[in-house]
Amino acid sequence: MPHPLHLTTFQIGTPATPAQGLRIGVTRFPPRGVPKGRWAKDGYFDVWLPVLAPSAKLVAQLKKKQIGPLIAFQKELDKYERELLSKASGRQTVEFLAQVAARMPISIGCACADESRCHRSRLFKILQAHAPT
What we know:
Elements: E1 7-11, E2 22-25, E3 47-48, H1 56-65, H2 70-85, H3 88-101, E4 106-110, H4 119-129
Parallel strand pairs: 1-4, 2-3, 2-4
Helix pairs in contact: 1-2
């Protein structure tokens, strides 16, 4: 049986809470015009980990599907999952974060306002599926 993960999600720019633990930005691009030294102070995230973000091409496709039917968006998320897990760097990062989340609180965040239309919702499920047993 997998260990429960201390894992939550957040929208980038919202105030941090102690329960979130380490806040990890999983966006393809860093916040525009915000110096790295301000990321945590301004509520963006503690560390940026773009390896967990969709490719730039897939980001564009996801944005187009955000306003259409949810089923079409889910198909794009399937592409994201395949893309993420097809590379050793993606698989290893997922395994690492699942191990970390089994031991301490972490939170994954993106700028999307609607989590149901954001890759972080799928990443949350991917990390849960990789929880240590």
